[in-house]
Amino acid sequence: MKVVFERPEALQNVPFTYCAGCTHGIIHRMVAEAIDSLGIREKTIGVSPVGCAVFAYDFFNCDVVAAAHGRAPAVATGIKRSHPDKYLFTYQGDGDLAAIGTAEIVHAAARGERITVIFVNNAIYGMTGGQMAPTTLLGQKTDTTPYGRDARANGLPIRVCELLQSLDGVAYIERVSTHDPKHVLQAQKAIKKAFQYQVEDKGFTLIELLSTCPSNWGMTPVESLKWLEENMLPYYKLGVYKDIG
Amino acid sequence: MSEKKLMKGNEAIGEAAITAGCRHFFGYPITPQSELPAYLSKRMPQVEGVFLQAESEVSAINMVYGAAASGVRVMTSSSSPGVSLKQEGISYLASSELPSVVCNIMRAGPGLGTIQPSQSDYFQAVKGGGHGDYHCLVLAPNSVQEIVDLVRLAFDLADHYKNPAMILIDGVLGQMMEPVDFGNYKPTFVEKPWAANGCKDRKPNAITSIHIDPKDMEQHNLRLQKKYALISEKEQRSEEWMMEDADIMVASYGMTSRIVKSAIRKAREEGIKVGLFRPITLWPFPEKKLDENINRVKEILVVELSAGQMIEDIKLVNNGRLPVSFHGRMGGMTPSVEDIYDEIKKIHDRLTVKA
Amino acid sequence: MTEDLIIAGFGGQGVMSMGQMLAYAGLSEDKNVLWMPAYGPETRGGFANCTVIVSDEEIGSPVVSHPKAVIVLNLPSLDKFEDAVVPGGVLVVNTSLVNREPKRTDIDIVHVPASDIANEIGSSRAANMVALGAFLAHKPIISIEAVKNTLKKVFAAKPQVIPLNEKALDRGAEAARVQAAV
Ligand SMILES: Cc1ncc(C[n+]2csc(CCOP(=O)(O)OP(=O)(O)O)c2C)c(N)n1
Ligand code: SF4
User: Fold this and answer.
1) What's the CA gap between A156 and A127, in Å, rounded?
2) Which of B176, B208, B234 is the last residue in one of the domains?
3) Are residues B226 and B253 in the same domain?
4) A152 contacts chain B (CB < 8 A)
């Protein structure tokens, strides 16, 4: 599979600055490949979050607007409504999307906003150094759950796909994973399909990618892939949560 | 062995709050204040207190609103972008007259900016920030020990005046470690008969900031203004350092004032008569002491980590009497001792020529 | 008297804890102390540095652009901080990881193969303490005894690491003294 190693046109020719073994890199690549495969690079505008992917404009070879923390779906809405012929994606972490940006994501989905949301769920706040995320698992130790996440004290982890699937504006939602090549291939397909639906003007699309943060999980890249598989998969069930076809 | 502990500024805020009887903290992660929530997430459960990471700064400040309304000592903290989000809530706290403590560990803006130290939220802190005619009490420590002292004071003043109080420091002060002595401090709690904590054996309490009839709203504003005038009369605080014989007054607050002190020492070694005027309360601004000092010196230099914000308050008090110059760095950069010394020297040379 | 120094190296070399240890030791001798970590962009790429100030007077600026001493544990730190040392100041170089000679001729340079010595006595992680020992032998801004007492307190929960760290301090000091004698 030589193709995998070629740089997609929608990625700039610069090395990623993510930590070693972080899955943000592979996810960028998949998004770029999806954009290329549909030939929409020059009509695509990305919206980067506040999170480790804040510098996404350094990596994507398309226009990118950096939003305030959590507000990417609103920013994307503003752009899409001004340029309905363009394709919009937001790229958001779990803190950005499921904590501070909960209102924005719910209402963008409810409005059936024609945007594609790339939701990177690594169960922690990466950029700020490892605090609890809304998707942090019960018992998981973080900088702000030093005794492990406790349901009573810290609430329960949010399942975003399940939360959004009931909204009628949603055209397609799928949860995928990045912990092994087989799942990466599935993820790649899902991302492409989401953009395809946007091109076909079907409605709101979101792909949740289970991901790793070796640095703040305090693990090696290999250990973190294993941790993801063993701990996140049972709680965050993979699959299609909505598909209007 | 001394009783002192070595602590980071951010952690000292947390421990000081606990010693001040604060058992409720609501916040949202942001650099460079992360050590504070991390510290309190460990400490609060040990003292049967509440640490809650909210889903946003907007929520956190409204959790503060709720806790304060129910009569407990409560704190939140953030850094510049997050404090911007809290402004609506702070306006409500001020209008509903709810005692509370908000910490801003400032970083460089505008926008997402950078996490390096800054003092560019001065306007936001002292001139309102949110909507409406209101003031927070704003305290600006310049050492880890003073952080402890002023956090305690902030809780007391907030309770006493039923007003939000803000601790304003920059990222460096939050990150650095210095010895602190917590002493045998015992907090004093005031009665809060106005609190919404259940109306057993009393008439129901209502806490609100809506006064829909403009006549009522004006009366509410007048009452607030009277309170602010009283605070301004009673609570101005400042430090004067080497000011007795000074010709040049350098005005500076927070961490920057420490760099200024080093520059002043250097200038003094060369016989330059220069001193520091350091506002400790930024609101109320220490106008009285500043005025006295302006009457004694010949020129003023203001040093801030901003484009020049506190300088406006200095100029208001100065009212055109003396020349005022400014030295500032922005964007997370800090001036060196030498930079400030050079500015002092320039003024000194100018004054010498004049003489 | 005010002594200030910057300690720099890779993250993981114990730069921060070494600075804190020194500050704690200063505190135990009733001095005014300040420890300040570099944070943010300066720490990109895995570099770490911190400033320590020990003084008999009230400590002014936490920002020190020209420290009286610099301890560098790796080459990028030497490149970054060599010029910062105040003339007449001290530069301690971990020669195990620095393959060039400092250019400055107006400062005292203390060479110490800190990582090699640390490996020799049992753990590369102790290189920071070796360098600290070398520095304090050359310039006793506080006593090595005070650092050792501090070690005992800081590692009260992990007493097994104390002997290694003490040894590291001594071996560093010895290396510096031998150099001074030569
Ligand atoms: C208003 C505001 N609050 C807080 C922050 C600090 N902040 C930056 S990134 C981030 C969360 C990062 O976590 P996540 O969204 O999960 O993305 P990741 O870094 O893990 O990819 C936070 C809280 C901010 N920049 N702005
Ligand atoms: S901190 Fe975590 S999420 Fe951020 S780049 Fe590093 S590994 Fe990735």
Assistant:
1) 22
2) B234
3) no
4) no
